[in-house]
């Protein structure tokens, strides 16, 4: 077996597959956003306007709206009670930008409603960060210890798998936020009947990136399992 089994071995194809899937998903969301980023809403609202209307209608006047640099860096921070819209989103009147802003407002609605998957994801953040930091040192130590390091290897794989768990919990959080966004955009008349399907396409494309991330994480975990199960047989 190679001295460093984590890089150049036949199972590396799984990492390549994960990278390709993630890359294709990213390209698709960028192309979809660009397409509908050129379609301005008939109502004339900016994404920031829409976001504020959604929050106020939900009695979330205390949630601050702020700008943040970057492209599609929009996010809702429950700890700071602030929703940040990126440079390319907040002053745009496009259907794509409004869809993204409404999605982030959907996270604020989840926070208001004490949505369980959102709470679980928040609780997993520090645990997942620890797992990402500690997994490979523990795996390397277990590898160098040989037969006596089997338990450390299992612990390392388990810690590494926390990223996959986080990605899986993220899926319902993101899907639900998008569903809330589309529903509120429609019921409050913030987009026209013709624009709703366009916003849905943007949010569906964005959802693919989360699915791709989960698949890539699964393939990475599978690779480690294959590597070390093969080592145990040797």
Give an overview of the whole structure.
The chain crosses the membrane at residues 12-29, 122-145, 151-173, 202-228. This is Zinc metallopeptidase. InterPro entries: Zn_peptidase_2. It holds the Pfam family Zn_peptidase_2. Keywords: Membrane, Transmembrane, Transmembrane helix. This protein has 234 residues and is mainly α. It has one domain. It has 6 helices and 3 strands, in the order ααβββαααα. The protein has helices at 12-36, 47-57, 95-112, 116-144, 150-187, 195-233, and strands at residues 64-68, 75-77, 82-86. Strands 1-3-2 form a 3-stranded mixed beta sheet, covered by helices on one side. α1 packs antiparallel against α6, α3 (95-112) packs across α5 and α5 runs antiparallel to α6 (195-233). The longest helix is centred in the last third of the chain and has 39 residues, at 195-233. The termini are close together. 36% of the residues are buried.
Attribute tags:
3-stranded mixed beta sheet, 234 residues, mainly alpha
Number of strands: 3
- Strand fraction band? 5-15%
Q: Give the overall shape.
A: elongated
Q: How many individual domains?
A: 1
Structural class: mainly alpha
Rounded radius of gyration (Å): 21 Å
N- to C-terminal distance: 8 Å
Largest sheet: 3 strands, mixed
Low-confidence stretches: none
* Mean of pLDDT: 92
The helix count comes to 6
Query: Percentage of helical residues?
Result: 55-70%
Q: Would you list the SSEs in sequence order as H and E?
A: HHEEEHHHH
Strands ordered across the widest β-sheet: 1-3-2
Transmembrane segments: 12-29, 122-145, 151-173, 202-228
Pfam family, one: Zn_peptidase_2
InterPro entries: Zn_peptidase_2 (IPR007395)
Keywords: Membrane, Transmembrane, Transmembrane helix
């Amino acid at each position: 077996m190679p001295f460093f089994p984590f890089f150049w071995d036949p199972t590396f194809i799984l990492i390549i597959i994960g990278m390709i899937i993630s890359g294709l998903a990213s390209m698709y969301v960028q192309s979809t956003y660009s397409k509908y980023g050129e379609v301005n809403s008939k109502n004339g609202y900016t994404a920031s306007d829409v976001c504020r209307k959604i929050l106020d209608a939900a009695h979330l006047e205390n949630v601050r709206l702020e700008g943040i640099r970057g492209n599609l860096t929009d996010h809702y921070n429950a700890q700071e009670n602030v929703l940040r819209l990126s440079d390319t989103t907040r002053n745009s009147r496009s259907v794509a930008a409004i869809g993204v802003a409404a999605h982030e407002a959907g996270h604020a609605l989840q926070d208001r409603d004490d949505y369980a998957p959102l709470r679980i994801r928040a609780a997993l953040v520090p645990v997942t960060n620890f797992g990402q930091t500690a997994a490979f040192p523990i795996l390397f130590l277990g590898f160098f210890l040989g037969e006596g390091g089997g338990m450390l290897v299992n612990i390392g794989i388990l810690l590494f798998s926390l990223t996959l768990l986080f990605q899986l919990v993220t899926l319902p959080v993101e899907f639900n936020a998008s569903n809330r966004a589309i529903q509120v955009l429609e019921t409050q008349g913030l987009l026209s009947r013709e624009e709703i399907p366009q916003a849905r396409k943007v949010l569906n494309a964005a959802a693919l990136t989360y699915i791709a991330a989960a698949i890539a994480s699964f393939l990475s975990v599978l690779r480690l399992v294959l590597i070390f199960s093969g080592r145990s047989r040797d």
